[in-house]
């Protein structure tokens, strides 16, 4: 198929497609109904659920802070609560930014730039959050071990002997998978940005 | 303030635009239906802010292309769904089989282009001049010329390979 042939074929198709009036009045008005049952449901549901769980965890730690009787347990409690409060908010904010394209006013270039830059920021943040979650996991084990079972993880050396290496092993495998996934998506975004600049 | 009646009329007069954009930016019919519905919803949502300072078709291209971009990697979730099977199927049935095969090949070539290029080639094939393409896409007219030359080279190489 030659290029000129392509254009001619497109014109032929256009003549047929543009003449067709398939959409009925009812169908159009049906299509204008909000795609999702409510605004929260659009893309944020899992993120909002995650945020609520994190906030509940932070609140739970705050209520039971008195049970953390040693300085390093208190430090772990503060770190875990802070992470549970800050990280989900950052994540939600970056999703909101990515969604902030003015569909009717922005040009194609502006939308692509906004979307791709937002996606890159989101991916970078997700990567940071993922690595931080390593530390968060350990501090959460320490804090909740004490609050739930009154166990000071640092004092139970036998359990730590197998828990820490197996935990690190599992997280390492998961990290490799996440890294590959984000690397591909970040490279795609980078390609689009480079192409827009050319 | 625009009325429902005006909106329906504008959509019906330009429904081919939605079909073509959804076909270029989706990988399967489910995806296409989803995008189709999202585009009409976004058109309706922004209809009142459309002041008529450009042609209805120009505004529709802009909204449809922007929706397609923001729809690219969005996770699909079930919600209010309209049955669009007939709308998409009938368009295909109205053209003969040989032509549809050639059209499918044409779309396949376009889909091999990058996201940026797909929007530009669509507007070019729609017989828009450089100024119109520039106003919809936000690139300068000169840049559109350069990009179109590059796209043509790419397509030529693709077609030769087949």
Describe this structure in words.
- The complex is a heterodimer of chains A (198) and B (162).
- By secondary structure, chain A is mostly helical.
- Chain A has six helices and no strands.
- In chain A, helix 3 (45-63) runs antiparallel to helix 4 and helix 5 packs antiparallel against helix 6 (157-197).
- Chain A is elongated.
- Chain B contains nine helices and no strands.
- Chain B has helices spanning 4-13, 15-25, 29-46, 56-71, 85-93, 97-111, 115-125, 130-137, 141-161.
- Chain B starts with a helix and ends with a helix.
- In chain B, 73% of the residues lie in helices and 0% in strands.
- Chain B is mainly alpha-helical and 162 residues long.
- Chain B is globular and about 50 Å long.
- Chains A and B meet through helix 1, helix 2, helix 5 and helix 6 of A and helix 1, helix 2, helix 3, helix 4 and helix 5 of B.
What is the strand content of chain A? Answer: under 5%
Largest inter-chain contact set = A-B, 52 and 65 residues
Shape descriptor of chain A reads elongated
The major beta sheet of chain B can be summarized as: none
Order of helices and strands of chain B: HHHHHHHHH
Number of strands of chain B: 0
Tally of DSSP helical segments of chain A: 6
Number of strands of chain A: 0
Low-confidence stretches of chain B: none
Oligomer: heterodimer
Helical proportion of chain A? over 70%
Task: Output the number of helix runs of chain B.
Answer: 9
> How are helices and strands ordered from N to C of chain A?
HHHHHH
As residue ranges, the low-confidence spans of chain A are 37-41
Average pLDDT score of chain B = 83
Structural class of chain B: mainly alpha
Strand content of chain B: under 5%
């Amino acid at each position: 198929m030659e290029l000129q042939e392509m254009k001619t074929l497109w014109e032929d198709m256009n003549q047929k497609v543009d003449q067709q009036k398939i959409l009925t009045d009812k169908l159009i008005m049906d299509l204008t109904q909000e795609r999702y049952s409510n605004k929260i449901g659009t893309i944020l549901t899992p993120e909002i659920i995650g945020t609520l769980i994190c906030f509940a965890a932070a609140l739970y730690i705050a209520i039971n802070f008195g049970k953390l009787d040693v300085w390093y347990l208190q430090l772990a409690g503060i770190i875990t609560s802070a992470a549970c409060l800050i990280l989900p908010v950052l994540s939600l904010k970056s999703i909101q930014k990515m969604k902030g394209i003015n569909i009717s006013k922005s040009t194609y270039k502006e939308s692509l730039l906004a979307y791709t830059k937002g996606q890159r920021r989101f991916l970078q943040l997700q990567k940071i959050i993922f690595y931080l979650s390593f530390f968060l996991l350990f501090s959460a084990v320490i804090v909740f071990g004490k609050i739930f079972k009154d166990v000071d993880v640092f004092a139970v050396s036998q359990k730590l002997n197998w828990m820490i290496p197996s935990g690190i092993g599992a997280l390492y495998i998961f990290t490799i998978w996440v890294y590959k996934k984000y690397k591909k998506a970040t490279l795609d975004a980078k390609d689009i940005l480079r192409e827009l600049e050319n | 303030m625009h009325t429902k009646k005006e909106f329906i009329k504008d959509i019906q007069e330009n429904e081919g635009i939605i079909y073509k954009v959804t076909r270029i930016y989706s990988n399967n019919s489910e995806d296409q239906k989803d995008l189709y519905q999202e585009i009409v919803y976004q058109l309706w949502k922004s209809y009142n802010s459309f002041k008529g300072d450009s042609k209805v078709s120009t505004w529709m291209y802009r909204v449809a292309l922007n929706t397609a971009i923001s729809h690219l990697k969005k996770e699909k979730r079930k919600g209010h769904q309209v049955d669009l099977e007939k709308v998409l199927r009938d368009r295909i049935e109205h053209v003969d089989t040989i032509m549809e095969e050639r059209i499918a090949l044409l779309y396949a070539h376009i889909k091999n282009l990058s996201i940026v290029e797909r929007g530009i080639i669509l507007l070019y094939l729609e017989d828009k001049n450089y100024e119109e393409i520039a106003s919809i896409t936000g690139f300068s007219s000169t840049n559109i010329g350069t990009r179109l030359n590059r796209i043509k080279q790419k397509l030529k190489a693709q077609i030769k390979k087949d």
